[in-house]
Design brief:
Blueprint lengths: L13 H26 L16 H8 L13 H12 L9 H10 L10 H13 L4 H40 L4 H29 L10 H29 L5 H20 L6 H19 L1
Length: 297
């Protein structure tokens, strides 16, 4: 099943990274301005709705299947509608059920963002429906959240949490921990990703149409700022440790051949960097692994 890669990657190098940051900041500014426009510019959390304890747990469980009905027409939209439905049930008695059905239909419209942060949009739009925000504005809020949530998820998870935990697991394996290192990776990674999903859902429900304020929380800002340097440090430590571990069983000539193959692969990837995709990078890694396996024998 395709996995959402939220923000588009910019051009390689410093200029590309700055451009991507500027685009993400521009999208976030749109969300902020619209939130202030819809809600009078106040930054306080919205008042409680009729349900004192919303079914956030049930909604969280459904968010794990948000991509189960992924398609090219609505992307994650159908899954978003399914996840949002428990939060909309209080609306079934309003206007003979028409409010509930209209809100549920809006929840299943097109949406595309990082799957771990979809809960922020689910909670925010459901709260906006309860607060009586007009349907057109709810749809614009959903559309405005796609870009920022995709870019933020890429930086926090795909370029941060995942390589950090993977690098630590590889270091553990290289130092002889074996299966416990792999099990630790599975546990630690999923604890972090479930916590992110839960925070996103709760923050979206708490802020409603003012959801831009959730994206400015200090904890989130610090995590975003630290994820890049932490990833670079862990991967920088893991690479030589793992190379030393893998090269331990090679004789002299095979080590030289492996080094030449690795250098050639890096040069080829750099030469073709403009055309590099996730699939091609994965195939290149498989080729290196196959070469290493053949030389090991």
């Amino acid at each position: 099943m395709p996995e959402r890669r939220g923000g588009r990657r910019g051009a390689r190098g410093g200029d590309g990274g700055n451009a991507a940051s500027r685009r993400a900041g521009a999208r976030l500014s749109v969300v902020r301005s619209r939130s202030h426009q819809w809600c009078g510019g106040s930054v306080a959390a919205v008042s409680p709705t009729t349900r004192s304890r919303p079914p956030l747990g049930r909604c969280l469980l459904r968010l794990f299947t948000v991509q189960g009905s992924w398609n090219y027409e609505r992307m994650q939209g159908v899954g978003m509608g399914v996840a949002e439905e428990p939060l909309l049930r209080d609306l079934r008695g309003a206007n003979g059920g028409t409010t509930y059905h209209a809100a549920l239909a809006r929840g299943a419209h097109f949406f595309n963002a990082h799957p771990y942060l979809c809960g922020l949009a689910v909670g925010a739009t459901a709260r906006a429906e309860h607060d009586g925000v007009p349907g057109e504005q709810v749809e614009r809020l959903r559309a405005a959240l796609c870009g920022p949530l995709g870019s933020l998820g890429d930086r926090l998870v795909w370029a941060g949490w995942l390589p950090i935990t993977s690098g630590l697991a590889l270091i553990g394996v290289a130092f002889g921990l074996g299966f416990p290192a792999i099990l630790g990776f599975v546990i630690v990674y999923n604890v972090g990703h479930v916590a992110l999903r839960w925070w996103a859902l709760r923050a979206g429900w708490a802020y409603g149409a003012r959801v831009a304020m959730a994206l400015r929380e200090p904890v989130l800002q610090r995590a975003t700022a630290l994820s890049g340097p932490a990833m670079a440090f862990v991967v920088g430590v893991a690479l030589p440790v793992v190379v030393r571990y893998l090269s331990g069983g090679f004789v002299g000539w095979s080590r030289g051949l492996l080094a030449v193959a690795a250098a050639g692969g890096v040069a080829l990837l750099w030469w073709q960097r403009a055309r590099l995709t996730g699939l091609r990078f994965g195939l290149a890694l498989l080729a290196v692994a196959a070469l290493a396996g053949g030389l090991w024998r």
